[in-house]
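Project outcomes to date are best conveyed with an example. Our students and postdoctoral researchers have been running inverse folding experiments weekly, and each run begins with a structure described purely in tokens. The record below, which covers 613 residues, was selected by the lab manager from last quarter's runs and is presented without edits.
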């Protein structure tokens, strides 16, 4: 059955009134437009029999029971930021469609007239009675890409329209000015920032008119002073031209010259999949010994990319969905190259346990060998196959686990490694995906953490970011993810985590809080002073909750460094809570912590999978 008519019938079965729009257009294909919308199966089949490629319109309002919020462009994002940061409000987790320049957020019709509005609230349009929206998999008339569900009605349901939102839509604020939330772009950074944004939009398939409109919004609202419109047009055209293709050099116009004239290079800002940890368009290495959960972590990251859930930041339980704000640009597919784990008995269950949208994930490990059989994918020879998989699921993340299983040549030879990884890095730049490479540690002990990765030093040399995992030196129930290399940002804080058993009996990662331990600390632990610090800290916090500054000051007087005290805090499970006069952060030692009995109690409550790769 044609996908469009199949989708139209499924919407009708949900009670949504549908009608056809012209091919690759928002213009209705029937004489009365949305007034012809129906749930009648025979009528719907006849429409799409006449033209199988009609787009699908859904009539909004009481008939379909829908109020749709169109969050549009940069203004829409800023409005959501203001709601969340200024008022503690955010759109609910609900059925959400990704459009070419924002989202359609589906809500239950409130039963009162709201009216169709355009920009009454900046960046927020409303589709209600007398309006309609295009529904997946309709084709956007400008970008040529399909509308797609970020969260389907089956998965997220359709949430009630919040009262606070109705108040804003019916009685919008009359404030004469809106305080800027995003940082301004000063002279010296305007061209580079707008160019980077334009390149990102072009890679996502936006057309020139959409890119120009977004750049002009950024220019007017954030650039100080704004650029001339003609200059914005030139930036847009430069970003869309082939001469600036990522990963390719622009040579001098002098036919006898070589190299790149730096005056001709447009500066770009780094885009991140996981802020300050995993950059887009670059290689990232994840190092660690077996049984520490490296592969489980990669499945957790895959789930976050495919469902638009925010990445861990050290605040336990802090989860933000794509429909609510920040991760829309990074919602996408995942390509997995795995040589050690089975798809059916390990990878799929782990993805399910992490809540991944597996329809956006493709696994590839072999290619035809030309002899009616298959061989393992080789890097760099089969990069074209990886690129095809990226296009198939519109991937934002490629996972290679482990690297050595797919690397051509001899992994201990720096020259062979660079010949393989340089094309892989260029592929990452050209496609804009983050490539996460998993590697085991070598058996050497001591020394700098950056030299502990297996095989050639050229592997970490080719990466722009490096992560490493190891058991927490002071708490055997915890592991630590630390930055081992960071060429593009200040090193992000290390995070604690544990591996637990999910409901389907598969391994799952549970992220904890930030820790002061760095890569060298976890790979070369010195625990001689930590035990003493634990005893001292447990005694200090036995009957009183102390401000952290007081603890560090008294600890220094007792002969302990700040890092040793932080390690003792992690090992004891001390919690930092904001309480007391002035909202001071104080350290709390909960009942049962700091004693052998308390530790036994914690161990009994925690089910840890010890053999997760």
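After processing, the design step wrote out the following sequence:
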């Amino acid at each position: 059955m044609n996908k469009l008519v199949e989708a139209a019938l499924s919407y009708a079965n949900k009670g949504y009134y549908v009608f056809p729009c012209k091919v690759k257009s928002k213009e209705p294909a029937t004489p009365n437009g949305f007034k012809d919308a129906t749930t009648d199966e025979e009528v719907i089949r006849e429409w799409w029999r006449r033209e199988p490629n009609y787009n699908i319109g859904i009539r909004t309002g009481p008939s379909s029971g829908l109020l749709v919020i169109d969050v549009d462009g940069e203004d829409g994002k800023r409005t959501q930021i203001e709601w969340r940061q200024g008022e503690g409000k955010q759109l609910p987790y609900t059925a959400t469609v990704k459009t070419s320049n924002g989202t359609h957020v589906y809500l239950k019709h409130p039963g009162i007239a709201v009216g169709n509005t355009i920009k009454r609230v900046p960046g927020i349009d409303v589709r209600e009675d007398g309006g309609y929206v295009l529904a997946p998999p309709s084709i956007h008339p400008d970008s040529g890409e399909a509308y797609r569900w970020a969260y389907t009605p089956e998965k997220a349901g359709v949430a009630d329209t919040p009262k606070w939102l109705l108040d804003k839509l019916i009685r919008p604020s009359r404030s004469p000015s809106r305080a800027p939330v995003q940082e301004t772009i000063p002279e010296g950074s305007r061209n580079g920032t707008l160019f980077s944004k334009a390149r990102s939009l072009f890679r996502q398939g936006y057309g020139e008119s959409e890119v120009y409109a977004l750049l002009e919004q950024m220019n007017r609202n954030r650039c100080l002073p704004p650029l001339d419109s003609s200059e914005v047009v030139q930036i847009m055209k430069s970003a869309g031209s082939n001469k600036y293709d990522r990963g390719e050099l622009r040579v001098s116009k002098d036919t006898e010259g070589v190299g790149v004239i730096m005056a001709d290079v447009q500066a770009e800002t780094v885009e991140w999949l996981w802020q300050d940890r995993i950059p887009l368009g670059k290689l990232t290495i994840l190092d660690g010994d077996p049984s520490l959960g490296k592969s489980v972590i990669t499945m957790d990251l895959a789930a976050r990319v495919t469902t638009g859930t925010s990445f861990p930041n050290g605040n336990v339980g802090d989860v933000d969905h794509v429909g609510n704000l920040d991760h829309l640009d990074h919602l996408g597919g995942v390509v997995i190259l795995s040589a050690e784990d089975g798809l059916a008995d390990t990878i799929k269950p782990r993805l399910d346990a992490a809540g991944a949208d597996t329809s956006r994930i493709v696994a590839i490990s072999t290619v035809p060998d030309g002899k009616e059989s298959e061989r393992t994918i080789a890097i760099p020879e089969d990069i074209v196959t990886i690129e095809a998989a990226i296009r198939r699921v519109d991937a934002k993340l490629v996972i290679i686990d482990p690297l050595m299983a797919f690397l051509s040549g001899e992994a201990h030879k720096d020259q062979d490694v660079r010949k393989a990884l340089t094309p892989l890095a260029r592929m990452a730049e050209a496609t804009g995906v983050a490539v996460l490479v998993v590697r085991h540690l070598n058996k050497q002990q001591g020394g700098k953490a950056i030299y502990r990765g297996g095989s050639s030093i050229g592997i970490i040399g080719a990466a722009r970011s490096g992560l490493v995992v190891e058991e927490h030196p002071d708490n055997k129930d915890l592991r630590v993810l630390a930055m081992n290399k960071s060429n593009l940002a200040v090193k992000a804080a290390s995070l604690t985590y544990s591996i637990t058993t999910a409901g389907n009996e598969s391994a799952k990662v549970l992220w904890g809080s930030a820790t002061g331990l760095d890569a060298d600390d976890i790979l070369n632990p010195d625990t001689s002073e930590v035990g003493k610090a634990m005893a001292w800290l447990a005694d200090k916090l036995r009957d009183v909750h102390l401000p952290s500054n007081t603890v560090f000051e008294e600890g220094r007087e007792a002969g302990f460094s700040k890092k040793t005290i932080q390690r003792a805090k992690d090992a004891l499970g001390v919690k930092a809570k904001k309480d007391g006069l002035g909202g001071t952060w104080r350290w709390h030692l909960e009942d049962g912590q700091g004693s052998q009995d308390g530790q036994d109690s914690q161990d009994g409550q925690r089910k840890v999978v010890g053999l997760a790769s």
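Residues 20 and 56 are 5 Å apart (CA to CA). The chain has a mean pLDDT of 82. The training component of this project remains on track.
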